[in-house]
Amino acid sequence: MSEWKPKRFWKKVDVVSLEKNFCIKLDEKILKTPAKKEMLLPTKALAKKIALEWDKQVGEINPNSMPFTKSANAALDKVIEQFEEVSSLVSDYGDTDLLYYRADSPVELQIRQQSSWDPIIDWAEKNFEVKINCGTGILYIPQDRELVYKLSKEISELSSFQLTALYDIVSITGSLILGLATINGRLSAEDAFNLSRIDELWQIEQWGVDEEAQAVSDLKYDAIMHAQEFFILSSGNKSTIF
Question: Which of the two ends of the chain, N or C, has the fewest CB atoms closer than 10 A to its terminal CB?
Answer without folding.
Answer: N
